[in-house]
Design a protein that fits this description.
It is an enzyme of class 2 (transferase). By secondary structure, the chain is α/β, with parallel strands linked by helices. It has helices spanning about 15-30, 30-35, 55-70, 90-100, 115-120, 135-150, 170-180, 200-210, 245, 255-265, 295-315; strands at about 40, 45-50, 70-75, 105-110, 125-130, 160-165, 190, 215, 230, 270, 325. Helix 1 packs across helix 11 (about 295-315), helix 3 crosses helix 11 and helix 4 (about 90-100) crosses helix 5. N-carbamoyl-L-aspartate binds near residues 138 and 275.
């Protein structure tokens, strides 16, 4: 795909070549993310970081990614403090804010809202999550992480087995990730969820039409032993009609050290887009796995910075100018010692 000036709204816009391009640029971002050196390639540029739904990692990493390329960030959080609460349309908001920014990252609780917003925008818009629909940048960082983690075991993505667990109905990360995986060969999917929270039919159809193998089950233990990747998700309580309804599923699937050791291969990679719900009633991914070498959750979050830096560089057309605007880091940085 042609990145410069383009919106990134859905993983369906991508193909394997464009994913490779993103990953190659993401790898070039490592020394800047580690503060070994700086680049001011986007000095003077402004990111409009519009988050109309709660977020920690995605919002902050979009902002930091832009800062690490030398740009400035202007942030809006929460619907109540924006004119959307006065009835302003997404189109009007986009027309105005796109004059103030060079690129916009946006999260919104409604499916397809970011696309609607992008129609009014004069600058590239990157989808940071649109309701239960898609989360393309998370899926890219997940795929990037899977690729790196499996390469340590001498494996590639083709032929791998992934178990996706939890709220597969409302969890947008698994919708987007499944579609990226569909572009590869011979993937085995084990989809583990309560039947009420099953993967939407349209995602299942995409997986089947691409010729991959699917097992659908409500049982966690006993269905993990072949998985190379175990991808856990949170019950998306904010998308349920009521808290009571969400509570029915909280804590239904839990992974801890004991279950992992008994039911998984010794090197199954444990992933979660985060936040993990660590309240006692949920505790979907126990702290007793925190120092396990196969726990990749924080490496996923680290990779998010690289992927988002790559997307900004590509959509603004500066991916080949990083070195030209390099300068040294003149403060003490522990990251560079890693
Ligand atoms: C996810 C999201 O917002 O969809 N979080 C994230 O962006 N890393 C998953 C979640 O909230 O459960």
């Amino acid at each position: 795909m042609q990145f410069e000036g383009s919106h990134i709204l859905s993983v369906n816009q991508l193909d394997l070549d464009s994913i490779n391009t993103i990953f190659n640029v993401a790898n070039k971002m490592t020394p800047y993310a580690l503060r070994e050196k700086r680049t001011k390639v986007l000095e003077g540029a402004i990111l409009g970081n519009l988050f109309f739904e709660p977020s920690t990692r995605t919002r902050v990493s979009f902002g930091c990614a832009f800062n690490l390329l030398g740009g400035h960030v202007r942030e809006t959080t929460g619907m109540a403090s924006s004119s959307l609460s006065k009835g302003e349309s997404l189109y009007d908001t986009a027309r105005v804010l796109s004059t103030y920014s060079d690129v916009i990252a946006m999260r919104h609780p409604d499916a397809f809202s970011v696309k609607e917003f992008a129609e009014g925008s004069r600058v590239p818009v990157i989808n940071g999550g649109d309701g239960p629909n898609e989360h393309p940048t998370q899926a890219l960082l997940d795929l990037f992480t899977i690729k790196k983690e499996l390469s340590h075991a001498g494996m590639g993505i083709d032929g791998m087995h992934i178990a996706m667990v939890g709220d597969l109905k409302y969890g947008r990360t698994v919708h987007s990730l499944s579609r990226l995986l569909c572009m590869h060969k011979d993937i085995k999917f084990t989809l583990i969820s309560p039947s009420e929270l099953a993967m939407p039919d349209y995602v299942i159809a995409d997986i089947e039409n691409a010729g991959h193998k699917i097992t659908i089950t409500e049982q966690l233990e006993g269905n993990l032993h072949q998985a190379d990747i175990l991808y856990l998700t949170r019950i998306q309580e904010e998308r349920f009609p009521s808290q009571e309804e969400a509570n029915k599923y909280r804590g239904k699937f839990r992974l801890n050290h004991n279950i992992y050791t008994q039911h998984c291969k010794s090197n199954t990679v444990i992933m979660h887009p985060l936040p993990r719900d660590s309240r006692a009633q949920a505790n979907e991914l126990d702290n007793d796995l925190n120092s396990h070498p196969s726990l990749a959750i924080f490496r996923q979050a680290d990779n998010g910075l690289l992927i988002r830096m790559a997307l900004f560089a590509l959509t603004l057309g500066v991916e080949n100018q990083l070195e030209k605007y390099e300068c040294p880091v003149n403060w003490y940085s522990r990251k560079a010692d890693r």
